Amino acid sequence: MDERQIALLKELTESFGPPGFERETAQIVKRNMQGIADSCRVNKLGSVIFEKKGTTEKPMVLLPGHVDEVGFCVTSVHKDTGFLTFGPLGGWFDQVLLSQRVLVRTHMGDLQGVISATPPHLLSDEEKKSVVNRDKMYIDVGTSCRRETEALGVRIGDPIVPVSPFTLIRDGKIAMGKAFDDRLGAFVAMEVVRKLKSEGIKHPNRVVGAATTQEEVGSRGARTVAFETNPDVCLTLEVDISGDVPGAANKIAPARMGKGVAIVTYDTSMIPNQPLKEFVIAVAKEVGIPHQLSIGTRGGTDAGQIHISGAGCPSIVLGVPTRHIHSHVGMFSLADLDAAVALVVECVKRLDSATVSSFIEA
C-alpha cells in the first residue's frame, strides 16, 4: 500500500464514530469520495452513498461497509467521585475493558479517561477470585465529584470510544488499532471506486459504495441504504474473525490472518446466494487472488438486512481476517486488505446483466 492509503486507513480508524455518532467518520468518507465518485451524498440516517457509473445503468452493484465502531455511552455520573458509569454501543466482552483508555465526547469537548474498578489491594481474597463485570466498572476522567464532572460538559448519553492509535508492525505488513470492524470494509469500497476511476476500468454496471451507519446495533444503516438504492447484487465488505489464536476451533473460525480475503459461506444473519458464491470463488481462482472460505457461527453483517430488502437481493460477504475484534486493539494483514480490493474490482468487471440474472434463475 502507498502512503495515501496508509494515511487514509489511519484517519478512518482513529476517527470517532460509535453507533449513532458516525458523523466524523462519514465526513472523511465523503471528503475522499467527492471528485472521485460520479456522485456522493449522505442519506437521512447518516450513511454516505457514492456512485461510479459504468457502461450501463443496470445492474446496480452495492458495496456496503459500515463505519460505526463498538463503543459506549454515559449512563450516570457518580455523586461522590465523579466517575462515569457506561453502557455498550455494540457488543463487548467485559474482560477486555479494565485499565483501557477511552475518549468521552461531550458538547464542550473531548475528555480522556480510563476504565477502572475497585483496586485489587482493597478487595478481599474471595473478591479477587471473581471476574469483574462491566456493571462494577467506572470511567475515571480525573475529577473528584459529580459537580466537577458535569462542569466539563458530561451528560447522560454522551458517546465514548477506545483510544488506540493506528500502528504498523512487522515491517509494515501488519496493522494494529481500533475500529477495523468495519472501517476496513468502507476502505475497500472507497478504494474500489477510486481504482475504477483512476485506472479507467470499464465495468458493465453501476457501482454504488456505501459507508453505512449503526451496523453494530442492528444494521439500521444497511436497511435504509438498501431501500434507497434497490440493488441488483450486493458484495458486503467486512472483517472476518481470524481464528488463528489460542483456543479457537477451526470448525467455528476457519479464517487465518495473512491467508487472503475471506469468502463467507454463511453466517447467522444470511446464507449467501449460491450462484453468486460460486462466481466469486471462480473469479478469485481465475485471477489468482489469495482467498479462503469461511463461516460465521455467531453474529451477522449488513448483508443480513440487504439480502431480504425489497423483493430480495443476491448477496455475499467478503471479509478481511482480523484478530481481536470488538476490543481496543485489533490486528490485520495489509496483504489481505489488498486481496479484498483486488477481488471486488475483478468481480465488478464481470457483473453484467446476464451474469447477475443467472444468480436468480431457477
User: Would you tell me the overall average pLDDT?
Assistant: 96
Span between termini = 42 Å
CATH topology of the largest domain: Aminopeptidase
So what's the CATH class of the largest domain? Answer: Alpha Beta
Number of domains: 2
The percent of residues in helical segments reads 25-40%
CATH architecture of the largest domain: 3-Layer(aba) Sandwich
Strand content: 25-35%
Q: Could you list some keywords that capture this structure?
A:
single chain, 362 residues, alpha+beta, Aminopeptidase, Elongation Factor Tu (Ef-tu), domain 3, 2 domains, eleven-stranded mixed sheet, six-stranded antiparallel sheet, 10 helices, 17 strands
Description of the molecule:
With 362 residues, the chain is of the alpha+beta class. It has 2 domains: 3-69 and 178-358, Aminopeptidase (3-Layer(aba) Sandwich), CATH 3.40.630.10; 71-162, Elongation Factor Tu (Ef-tu), domain 3 (Beta Barrel), CATH 2.40.30. It is 28% helix and 26% strand. The chain is built from 10 helices and 17 strands. It has helices at 3-14, 23-33, 125-128, 146-151, 180-198, 220-229, 274-287, 303-306, 334-350, 353-358; strands at 39-42, 48-53, 60-66, 71-77, 84-89, 101-106, 109-116, 138-140, 159-162, 167-169, 174-177, 206-212, 233-241, 261-264, 291-294, 315-323, 330-333. The strands form 2 sheets. Strands 1, 2, 3, 10, 11, 12, 13, 14, 15, 16 and 17 form an 11-stranded mixed β-sheet that branches. It has a 6-stranded antiparallel β-sheet with strand order 5-4-9-6-7-8. A hairpin with a 5-residue loop joins strand 1 and strand 2. Helix 1 packs antiparallel against helix 5. The longest helix is centred in the middle third of the chain and has 19 residues, at 180-198. The chain is globular. The model has no long low-confidence stretch (mean pLDDT 96).
